[in-house]
Structures are given as C-alpha cells and as structure tokens.
C-alpha cells in the first residue's frame, strides 16, 4: 500500500516540475550552506591541531603539585603513591615521573644554562621525542641534549649579551654544580648520546638524564641523602591512550587535587571552541534552510488548494485520512530529499573548487595569506566534508521537508468528502 501511495506522490510532483525545481532549489541552498559552513570549521580545526604538534603531544598531560596560600592545608604529593593512582585511571597509557635540577653549562669562556630532567630510562620511548643527532638511548652517565640548548650560551665578560651557539654533541661541554653547603663547585663533562629534534616543547631547553644520576647530583648539591619514603617528584607526564580520552583523564587527575596542563589539556579547550563555532555557523546556514521550509510549506499549501476536488474523489473511492496524509507527506519529504541530495552534490563540487584554490594560494612566506592559520597545516583541505556530515545534511533536508509539509498535509487529510467535491 505504501509503495503505491509513494508512486502516486512522485507522479503528482512531476506534474509540476518547475515548481518542484524551484522549491527544491531553496532546500539545495540551505543544505549547501549548512554543510559548507560546518565543513569549514572541521578543516580549520584539523589545521589548528596540526599546528599544535604531533599526535604524541596531543595525548600528553603535564601534572604538577597543587599550591595553596594556606600552609596548613594538606595537599596531595607527587610521590610513588600518586604514580600508582594515575596508572589506575581509565584511559592512561603510561605515567612518567620526573625530577629536575638546575644546571649551569660551561664551554671554554662561554656559559649557558639548562634544566636537568631525570627520568627512568625505560620510559624514554613514551616521551614522544626523536633524535636529530646521535641515538635515542639513555644509559647511566649519558645525557640527551634538548634541541635549543646549543643556542643558549653567552660570554659573561661581554658588555652586550649575544647568544652563542655551541656544538653540544661533538664539543666537550661541562655541567657545573654548586653545593648549597659551600665549597668549590663540581664540574662534570656531559656525555651526550644524542641531540633532540626541536619542536617548541618542554625538552627544547632541557637535558634529559637517568633519574639515578639526577638524584645523585641533588644529593651532592643539598648535602643530604634522598629518602625514598618522603621523596617527591617535581612533575609527571601522564600519557593518555588516545586523544578521545584526554579530557576524561585530565578531569580525573584534577579530582585527585593536582594541577594539569600541557597540549593534551589545551586540546579540550580547542575542541570546545570549534564545537561552539560549528553551532554558530551551522545556525547561520540553518537560516537559509528555514527560508526553504517556508517555501516547501507554501508549495504544499498551493498544491492542496489546486487538488481539492482530487482529494474529494480519492476519499469518495475509499481513501482514508491516513492515505491522504501519507501522499502529501511523501511529496513534502521528497522535495526535501531531492533538495538535500542536490545540496550534497553542490557542496562536494564547491569543496573541490575551494580546496584547489587554497592549495594554489600563496603561503604567508611567499605572499599574503588570507586565513588565520598556516596554509601548510591545511594540506589543501580547508573544507572537509566527512560521510557523517553528508548523512546529516540529507536527514536534515528531508526532515525540514516533512516538518514544513506536515500542517498542509494534515489539512488535506481532514477535508470532508462533500466539501472537497463541491470545491471548484
């Protein structure tokens, strides 16, 4: 029965092809506007995430001890117990505890400074770093030099500060330690196993060493032995299993009373920003679809007025109110469906044109960039239309057609047979 009613509805639509094209054209414009504006936010979000860094940095959370102005307030500590707590959080891949120590560097008459980070060498593969020189290994006595440490030297005897560059991998650079209890400083020659790739991260100006070596340095500096029972780490890196669980892991750590930062936590704010942008731009495109809905409602109202006697004849030969309602709803939904389908095709064509124009546009280095993001991060994909967005556009357009045509269809279904037959 429904197939017969649907065939009748499609036949009625084809009787007024010009009206069908114009009404579906309004739905086309609205659907295209919604899809393209949402697709634009997807492309910009992908570019923004690409500008943040690698996938490893997007799953990285930096955890620090909490701070309170009240010294009597007990605060959670970054100790071995906290490592176990973080590891039990659902979605955590690995917990990397670190301790730090400031270190002065010396090369001939030049001096430099770097933070010294101590980690368990077995956790090195989880840091998300790579070596520009040497190898990514960390044995006792070895060090991994941050990518910008070599540029952090200067001549203390010079009247003007001028950064000097030192080949920290091949030259003999010394690490100078000062004792808090007095006495002569201690100098140790760095034995770099590699120099890290500079990626504007926390390790660019740091030297990574085995945690046992850093603890020994701190013991010499402070003049006291390290008590494993009371020892506290300076910070920890918690790496989530995927970008999708970063937010939940971050919230769980905050609930334990710790401070959380890093690119992984920043991703939460970034996603919220683009979600809000999608709602705003999608709403702007929805205005065009709302205008199209009025066009569908007007078309269906005119169709009912023109076919009032036809409705009376259908009821006279046994058609029920439900049959009449179904016929006109199928007509309204078909207008939305065909308009949505045309809108998707139009969106894909415009996507190809826009992305091609962006790919051929001059970058910020060679010309004037018209976008607030680096064109290189776009990879020629300013507008991104995933399959689920196309399905959403199709369902939205069809739904708009059905909703716009519901009231006129209901009026047609409620007509009495006698009144409909008497209408000229």
Count of beta strands: 12
First and last CA, distance:
29 Å
Q: Based on helices, strands and strand pairing, what is the structural class?
A: alpha+beta
Provide the gyration radius in Å.
34 Å
Assembly form of the protein: single chain
Count of domains? 2
Mean pLDDT: 83
Order of helices and strands: HHHEHEEEEEEEEEHEHEHHHHHH
The number of distinct helices, counting runs of at least 4 residues, comes to: 12
- Strand proportion: 15-25%
Stretches where pLDDT is under 50 for at least 5 consecutive residues are none
Shape: elongated
Secondary structure: elements and pairs:
Layout: H1 2-14, H2 17-52, H3 55-58, E1 60-64, H4 80-87, E2 92-107, E3 110-119, E4 131-134, E5 143-145, E6 153-154, E7 174-177, E8 186-189, E9 192-196, E10 206-210, H5 211-222, E11 235-240, H6 246-255, E12 259-261, H7 263-306, H8 308-316, H9 321-360, H10 375-378, H11 387-413, H12 417-422
Parallel strand pairs: 3-10, 5-9
Antiparallel strand pairs: 1-11, 1-12, 2-3, 2-7, 2-11, 3-6, 4-9, 5-10, 7-8
Helix pairs in contact: 1-9, 2-7, 2-9, 2-11, 7-11, 9-11
Description:
The protein has 424 residues and is α+β, with helices and mostly antiparallel strands. The chain folds into 2 domains: 2-54 and 269-422, no CATH class; 93-241, no CATH class. Helix content is 50%, strand content 16%. β7 (174-177) and β8 (186-189) form a beta hairpin. The radius of gyration is 34 Å and the shape is elongated.
């Amino acid at each position: 029965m429904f197939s017969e009613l649907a065939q009748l509805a499609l036949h009625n639509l084809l009787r007024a092809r010009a009206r069908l094209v114009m009404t579906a054209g309004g739905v086309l414009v609205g659907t295209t506007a919604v899809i393209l504006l949402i697709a634009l936010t997807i492309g910009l979000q992908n570019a923004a995430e690409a500008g943040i860094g690698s996938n490893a940095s997007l799953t990285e959370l930096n955890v620090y001890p909490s701070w309170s102005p009240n010294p009597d307030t007990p605060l959670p500590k970054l100790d071995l117990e906290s490592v176990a707590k973080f590891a039990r959080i659902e979605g955590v891949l690995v917990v990397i505890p670190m301790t730090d120590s400031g270190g002065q560097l010396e090369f001939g008459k030049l001096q430099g400074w770097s933070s010294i980070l101590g980690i368990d060498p077995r956790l090195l593969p989880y840091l998300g770093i790579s070596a520009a020189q040497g190898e990514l290994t960390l044995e006792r006595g070895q060090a991994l030099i941050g990518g910008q440490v070599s540029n952090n030297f200067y001549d203390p005897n010079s009247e003007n500060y001028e950064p000097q560059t030192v080949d920290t991998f091949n030259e003999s650079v010394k690490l100078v330690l000062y004792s808090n209890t007095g006495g002569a400083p201690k100098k140790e020659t760095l034995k770099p196993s590699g120099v890290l790739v500079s990626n504007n991260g926390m390790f660019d100006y740091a030297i990574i060493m085995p945690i046992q070596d850093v603890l020994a340095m701190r013991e010499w500096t402070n003049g006291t032995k390290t008590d494993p029972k009371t020892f506290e780490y300076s910070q920890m890196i918690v790496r989530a299993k995927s970008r999708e669980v970063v937010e939940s892991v971050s919230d769980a750590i905050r609930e334990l009373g710790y401070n959380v930062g890093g690119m992984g936590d920043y991703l939460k704010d970034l996603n919220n920003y683009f979600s809000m942008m999608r709602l705003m731009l999608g709403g702007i495109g929805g205005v065009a679809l709302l205008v199209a809905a009025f066009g569908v409602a007007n078309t269906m109202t005119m169709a009912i007025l023109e076919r009032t006697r036809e409705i009376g004849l259908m009821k006279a030969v046994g058609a029920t109110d439900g049959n009449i309602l179904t016929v006109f709803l199928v007509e309204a939904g078909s207008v939305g469906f065909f308009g949505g389908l045309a809108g998707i095709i139009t969106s894909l064509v415009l996507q190809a044109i826009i992305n091609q124009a962006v790919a051929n546009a001059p970058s910020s280095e060679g010309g004037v960039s018209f976008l607030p993001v680096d064109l290189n991060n776009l990879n020629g994909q300013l507008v991104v239309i995933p399959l689920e967005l196309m399905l959403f556009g199709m369902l939205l357009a069809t739904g708009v057609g059905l909703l716009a045509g519901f009231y006129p269809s209901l009026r047609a279904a409620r007509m009495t047979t006698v009144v409909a037959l008497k209408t000229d």
